[in-house]
Amino acid sequence: MNSSVLKLREVQLASILAVLVAVIGLRAPLFLTGRSVDSLLTDTAILVMMALAQMLVILTRGIDLSVAANLALCGMAVALIEQKMPGVPVGVLLVAATAIGALLGAINGALIGFLRLPPIVVTLGAMSVFRGSIFVLSGGAWVSSHQMPQAFIDFPLERLAGLTHLVWLAAAALVLAWFVTRHTRFGRELYAIGNHPVSAAYVGIPIRRRLFAVYVISGAVAGLCGDLWVARYAVAFTEIANGFELNAIAACVIGGISIAGGVGSVVGAALGALFLGVIGNALPLVNISPFWQSAITGAVIVVAVVFNAREGRRAGKQILPLHEASPASPQGAA
Amino acid sequence: MSAVAPVKHRIEDHGSGGPATWLRRWESLLLALLLLVILVGGATQKNFLDPYNLADSTFNFSEKALIALPIALLIIVREIDISVAGILAVSSVAMGWASQHGVNAAGLAVIGIAVGGLCGTLNAVLVTRFSIPSIVVTIGTMSLFRGLALVVLGDQAYTGYPEGLGDWGQGYFLGVVPRSFVILLACAALFAAGLHGSTWGRRLYAIGSNPMAARYSGIRVDRYRFALFVLTGLMSGLAAVLLTGRIGSTRPNIALGWELEAITMVILGGVSIAGGSGTIAGVMLAVLTLGMVTYGLGLANVPGILMTIVIGALLLVTITVPALLRAGAPAKRH
Prior knowledge:
Shape of chain B: globular
Strand content of chain B: under 5%
Shape of chain A: globular
Number of strands of chain B: 2
Largest sheet of chain A: 2 strands, antiparallel
Structural class of chain B: mainly alpha
Radius of gyration of chain B: 21 Å
Distance between the termini of chain A: 45 Å
Order of helices and strands of chain A: HHHHHHEHEEHHHHEHHHH
Helix content of chain A: over 70%
Strand order of the largest sheet of chain B: 1-2
Number of helices of chain B: 15
Radius of gyration of chain A: 22 Å
Order of helices and strands of chain B: HHHHHHHHEEHHHHHHH
Distance between the termini of chain B: 6 Å
Number of helices of chain A: 15
Oligomer: heterodimer
Helix content of chain B: over 70%
Strand order of the largest sheet of chain A: 1-4
């Protein structure tokens, strides 16, 4: 029992993360202070949410490359609404961003779910279209902090019971995603689709509708994060969150979510995101130039996938004894 | 979705030929599209058909297309490499470093291509030795390679390359035809001969159609995969040599986002993301079509970012229309 807990990927990843945090803490005690941990969690919250949504997509053997462009487009849309109609309440904007994101995700979902087109191609095309649309929408202009109402900018960093709204939202997303993937039929069906699509179809899982739903969810989360991103950094322009889709995918990969589908857990995705967050936040504290961040992230991903690949191979070992060598087998007698 | 799909693509020994089959080919459609773009461009833009302008417009896509060629082969064998732009950055940085140490133009070209080959070898080892999906490996190495360029350069740039390098990057043959375009045409001819005219090429289609069956029929699948990743690295290195020579400087963000543009060229060219089909002619037609569209919109003073919408939309339409036609046709439905 004890050793099987230790063999869990999530436990191993959490231990590595703990060691990493401890080592950084020894070099720079500042890192372990409450304020530093607070800012680490706040900085990582959006990545955690995006990684959880990406995980649902990857579980079905898919991938969503359009999330960062979707995020930026929704963020810009919200910023423009704020600029034109400063009175709109913060809650309405959050809902609007989520709805726009879901709508954009539905385009992906329709093409991938109902027309069965390859996800990587569809979302690659959607990414370009979304990113270009931001330029069309904004005319290439920036929306900066003085054009946004204070309440909108304040929302992500306002505190509730000591933690920022961003952290609470990420925590809520984590619990929700955990519940959906472990305890709902919908979530289990996503695993089934990723494990073996043909069998999933035979047992009556409506694959088309499930795939559609998954990309809508991915889009909705991206939309919500777009609102939070723009409010948090108090600026919206065409290039925000450029390449962020790869961070979300990287978090999943580090967290042990198999790109081949059907394998992975919510905790893994969240730990993967935290891992990237720790690397990003700790470098300045231990006097390593931030220019190292990308290289270290890449190295961590490569090491993590090599590690995962070896784990996977061990799990695929022969578990039933082979009979071909035994002389007493019926085939041998005949 | 059909329940049983053992073979994704038919591999015909020799098509039946005839004008009807020829007209239905993807390449014919692309050729028609290319002619249409040239006609519309020529009719609406005064200087569109100016031979000097046309020749110069090839500078914009030659290096990208050089990377698209090996990616086409990778996609045909069901692999992908999104670290190509990162490789290009590392090669360019290596050339910049060598240039500071007094290496001449020929030496720099060798160094650029060799470093590209080394990076490709790293991808190849990770993909074949550890059996990790190539998309995961190259997401990691993309970050790693780009990160290495950032670590070396920081916010600096390498400039002051020897003149000989510029001759290749931005020089002409016979005073009109850009050298990079001639190199592209030569490489395309080589790739086409290899893919369509050799056993080696037929084996790539076999691997892409069904890797398992290909292995059972005695093809050393992993050796081919390995070679293709190294080849992709070498070609990225070659692109780095030309691009560095053309712009005369190396910044860490050199060729940012090119991987997705190159993949778009390949998919527009009719190479199936599911593997096992596609031609070099198709890829080259897609390259020229995209190049002419960009060039025409440039003459019409349309901002470059709008091009991303056009390209993304083209990609989506390209894959959606055949799928809709298939869905409309009376077929076995699940």
